[in-house]
Amino acid sequence: MELKQLGEFGLIDLIKENTIVDPASVIVGIGDDAAALLPSPRQLQLLATDMLIESVHFDLTTTTPWQLGYKAIAVNLSDIAAMGGVPKHCVVSLALPRNVQVDFVRDLYQGMKEICRRFTVNIVGGDTVSSPQGLVLNVAVTGEVEPARLQRRSGAKPGDLVVVTGELGNSAAGLDLLRRGHWQEFVFARQLVTCHLTPQPQVQAGLLLAAFANSMNDISDGLASEANEIAAASQVAVRLFEQQIPLSAELTAASAVLGNAALDYALYGGEDYQLLFTIEPEKLRVLPANEITAQLTVIGEIVRGPAGVELVAADGAARGLAPKGYNHFG
Ligand SMILES: Nc1ncnc2c1ncn2[C@@H]1O[C@H](COP(=O)(O)OP(=O)(O)OP(=O)(O)O)[C@@H](O)[C@H]1O
Ligand SMILES: Cc1ncc(C[n+]2csc(CCOP(=O)(O)O)c2C)c(N)n1
Ligand SMILES: [Mg+2]
Ligand SMILES: [Mg+2]
Ligand SMILES: [Mg+2]
């Protein structure tokens, strides 16, 4: 069915179903001039937004609407996770080309609702407009964090260890496989493509680490870029050890096919949505042993010195690591 058969308001009715998964804090959801929300007492309110643009962030020939909806929410939850918070509510704005079908929008929302259900996030509003060219999808998300647990990029201290959750570079290699096409013939490809199309925000990890870390950031633009953000915000030197950067076996296999170094995907690829944080060694030692801490890798240390990042190779040689990564205007 064409969108014009349903109209803007018919479309909103279709969207409205199953958007509130935790009603206690929603006084007014979809359907009024604004949402009205009840904040939890003594919590800081977090607010973040990230936008996805067709041909810049996604290609509709290689992503399904469901996956696109899932990812649009995931990248936003990732920013709340990076602050050590719990995501609560989101609003979703859509600019839709006129030829978009109703089923497309329904599937897009199914993807969004699925990840919102998994993380107990309410969709409390949005905006729907037409776009003369290309689809635009913007999400804004609120979150909450106890003041003492708030994580910033600026809290890294000399002596801290630099640690990441999960593996790096999978998403960028997945994107290159999608661009190359015929990726289904490679057994290692599915996991990488999945990392790219439906990244998993590290909300549980962020909540656990919030009580222990000194600084935190999520990896949207690549390790080189995010490590430089922490260095600049904290005015410290970040020393990373090349050999310690967690690279998956799938990434290593893909990099041979794609003709690029696995390490470069991790350093400059981006869209991993893992967490990069710094923590005092004594605190890292007392973290509880669980599924989250099993996935942590120490990749470096914070040292005194001018703000910047250096990468130490296997032979001990150090080089400066520029904040090269995905740059919209670079
Ligand atoms: N157009 C804008 N107006 C006001 N603030 C902005 C604008 N764009 C970005 N910012 C702010 O700049 C800071 C850095 O934004 P940035 O988008 O780089 O962070 P991020 O979301 O962590 O990264 P990514 O977009 O790669 O996921 C944030 O505080 C963000 O709110
Ligand atoms: C079709 C297509 N082309 C290129 C990319 C790669 N890409 C786009 S934005 C971005 C950084 C994070 O975005 P932002 O900084 O806006 O949050 C990256 C790595 C993609 N995902 N899809
Ligand atoms: Mg952003
Ligand atoms: Mg971020
Ligand atoms: Mg972001």
Automatic annotation (TrEMBL):
UniProt superkingdom: Bacteria
Binding site residues for Mg(2+) 4: D33, D79
Residues bound to Mg(2+) 3: D33, D79, D218
Protein residues bound to ATP: Y109, G126, D127, R153, S220
Reactions catalysed, as given in the entry: thiamine phosphate + ATP = thiamine diphosphate + ADP
Residues reported in the UniProt entry to bind Mg(2+) 5: D221
Ranges where the PurM-like C-terminal domain occurs: 157-307
Record keyword Magnesium present: yes
Statement: the UniProt record of this protein carries the keyword Isomerase: no
InterPro entries: PurM-like_C_dom, PurM-like_C_sf, PurM-like_N, PurM-like_N_sf, ThiL-like
CDD domains in UniProt: ThiL
Enzyme Commission number(s): 2.7.4.16
SUPFAM superfamilies: PurM C-terminal domain-like (SSF56042), PurM N-terminal domain-like (SSF55326)
Extra remark beyond the main annotation: Reaction mechanism of ThiL seems to utilize a direct, inline transfer of the gamma-phosphate of ATP to TMP rather than a phosphorylated enzyme intermediate.
Stated name of the protein: Thiamine-monophosphate kinase
Organism: Dendrosporobacter quercicolus
Lineage of producing organism: Bacteria, Bacillati, Bacillota, Negativicutes, Selenomonadales
